[in-house]
Write a structure and sequence with these properties.
With 334 residues, this protein is mainly alpha-helical. 75% of the residues lie in helices and 1% in strands. It has a two-stranded antiparallel ribbon. α1 runs antiparallel to α2, α1 runs parallel beside α9 and α6 runs antiparallel to α11.
């Protein structure tokens, strides 16, 4: 299996996923503009916007990524098992990393079925509509459930327990860890564990330093990538430069998923860059004593931040670090 073919398949999934990330993220950002909890009132415009963005765009993001990775590998027969695998990856909490695994697994399972299951000519017509989608979907789905499901749940619990044990210790170390976790899988299980821990520290009418560090760490990945596409334009494709503009909006809205298309396309360089930037933002936020009284909203809820100048400094520092690392690690586009 050549590395350039793996990259080609990955980029196929990413290119189809980008419009879903952008459309869903912008809809969510507009919803938060009405108030961070305005979407909770049923039948309102913010509620519909949240449904469009979260229930529509973001719900389809991982299945599209997985489906079109499989499509790139195995052509049309790979699409159904790939997308089904992507849905399952989301349901077991494995995020976009699980979606990538599902896509590649589906694609190569379909190729194996084509190679090893040979039917008489009279029955070959049922291969693409019955044999391939059914068998491939079952193999991919059961593999995800049995291989990834239980380990992911164990990891989530272990992470939550570990964070709880640190909450009384060094604020800077805790902020560094939370920022790293928020950036690591951008909406996946590790990110969600850190976010859940942050929300658990909120008390009505009071600010939480942990929640502030969590949001800072989650805002930095797309903000840093967006800045990098501007400062180091030669290192990004035209599509990525356009997506970088949307990433800034998503990052400002605390939608970490805006970084996923870039991380999926080049995980070896992007993931370390955003994790270091997220860690810097979280550590500075905790170290300077910023607190946040609400669980979401990005720039739309800065009114709920104490020590707002220090908080902005933390986010800007993490953003610059991420952008700078990407400028060093990424190569110019030939």
């Amino acid at each position: 299996m050549k590395s350039n073919s793996i990259y080609k398949h990955l980029m196929s999934g990413v290119s189809y996923m980008i419009p879903f990330v952008v459309a869903g993220g912008i809809a969510i950002a507009i919803s938060f503009a009405f108030g961070y909890d305005a979407f909770q009132t049923e039948g309102t415009l913010p509620a519909y916007l949240m449904s469009i963005g979260g229930g529509g765009g973001f719900a389809l993001m991982v299945p599209i990524l997985a489906g079109y990775i499989a499509y790139s590998i195995a052509d049309r027969p790979g699409l159904a098992p790939g997308m089904i695998g992507g849905v399952i990856a989301g349901s077991i909490g494995s995020g976009f990393l699980g979606g990538i695994v599902a896509g590649f697994l589906a694609g190569y399972v379909v190729l194996a079925i084509k190679k090893y299951i040979v039917l008489p000519k009279s029955l070959q017509g049922i291969m693409p509509v019955l044999i391939i989608p059914v068998f491939a979907s079952l193999i991919v789905g059961l593999s995800l459930f049995y291989v990834l499901g239980t380990p992911m749940a164990v990891v989530n619990k272990a992470v939550a327990d570990f964070l709880s044990s640190l909450s009384g210790g060094s604020a800077i170390v805790l902020g560094l860890l939370l920022g790293t976790m928020m950036a690591f899988d951008m909406g996946g299980p590790v990110n969600k564990a850190a976010y859940a821990f942050g929300t658990s520290t909120l008390v009505a009418g009071q600010g939480s330093a942990v929640m502030a560090a969590v949001m800072a760490g989650g805002m930095v990945p797309p903000l840093g990538i967006g800045l990098a596409t501007f400062l180091f334009a030669k290192k990004f494709t035209e599509d990525q430069k356009e997506a970088g503009k949307a990433a800034v909006v998503l990052g400002a809205s605390f939608i970490t998923e805006g970084a996923i298309p870039f991380a999926a396309a080049d995980p070896g360089r992007v993931l370390p860059s955003i994790m270091v930037g997220g860690a810097v933002a979280g550590a500075i936020s905790m170290g300077l004593g910023a607190t946040l009284a609400v669980p979401h909203g990005g720039v739309f809820v800065l009114f709920a931040v104490t020590n707002i100048l220090q908080y902005v400094i933390a986010i800007l520092a993490g953003t610059v670090v991420t952008a700078g690392l990407l400028g060093v690690l990424k190569k110019d586009i030939a």
